[in-house]
C-alpha cells in the first residue's frame, strides 16, 4: 500500500508540474488573444484585460485593413510553400545520393555539405543580396524563394532515415528493373514519409517566420511578407497595442491551422526511430 501511495504521489506531482509548465507556455498566447479581440480602451484595464469580456471582431478588421495583412499573408504563403517544396525535393535527391550512390569523396563532400550549417545566415546575407541585385531580382518572388530551395539540414535528416533501410531493398529493386529515381519515388520516399512530413512542416514554419531576408530584398509593399507587415503595423500604431496584438493573431492563424492538420505527421516524424517493442 505504501508503494502504491508513493507512486500515486509521484504521478500527481508530475501532472502538477506539467500543468504549471503548460500554463507558463500558453499564458502569452492567451494574453495576446485577449488583447487582440478587445477595443483600445479596454486592452490595458486590469484585470479585465485578461478576462474574456468586451470581446469584438472590430479590432481584427481594423488590423487587417490598416496593416494590409491580406496581401502580406499571400506573399508569405506563396514564399513558404515554394521554399518547402524546393527543400523537400532537393533534400530527397541529395540524401539519396549520399545514402545509396557510390562516388569518390562521398563522405568528405557530405561533411563539407554539413559544414554549411555552421555558417550563420547573417554572414552571407550581404553577398546574397548583391547577387540578387545583380540578377535584377529585387522586389520579386524569386528573391524570396531561390536562395532557400536547398538545405543541408533536410539532406542530413532524410539521409539518416535512408541509411536505416535494408540494402536488400535496393538490390531487389535493381533486379526488378527500377532505376534510381523510380526506387526513390516508389520505395525510399514512402518509407521515410513521417520524417519527410515533419521536415516539410519545419521548413514551412522557418520560411513563414523569416523577417530579415525579405526585408533586405524587397522595397515594394506588394512583395513584402507578413512579418514585415506586423513590424510596420506596430511602428505606425504605437499607441494602439490592441491593433498590433490583433495583427499577431491574424499572422498566427495559418500556423495554427497547419499544425492542427499535420500534427500526426509531426509526431510520427519526431518519434521515428524510437525504440520499438
Main attributes?
single chain; 277 residues; mainly alpha; 13 helices; flat
Overview of the molecule:
The chain is an all-alpha fold and 277 residues long. It has 13 helices and no strands. The chain has helices spanning 2-36, 58-66, 69-100, 106-115, 121-134, 141-145, 152-163, 167-175, 180-191, 193-208, 212-217, 226-236, 241-271.
Number of E strands: 0
Task: Count every helix, treating DSSP H or I runs of 4 or more residues as helices.
Answer: 13
What is the N-to-C succession of helices and strands?
A: HHHHHHHHHHHHH
What is the structural class?
mainly alpha
Low-confidence blocks of residues: none
Major sheet attributes: none
Global geometry? flat
Distance between the termini: 30 Å
Q: What's the helical proportion of residues?
A: over 70%
Topology of this protein?
Elements lengths: L1 H35 L21 H9 L2 H32 L5 H10 L5 H14 L6 H5 L6 H12 L3 H9 L4 H12 L1 H16 L3 H6 L8 H11 L4 H31 L6
Task: Summarize the structure in short.
With 277 residues, the protein is an all-alpha fold. The protein is built from 13 helices and no strands.
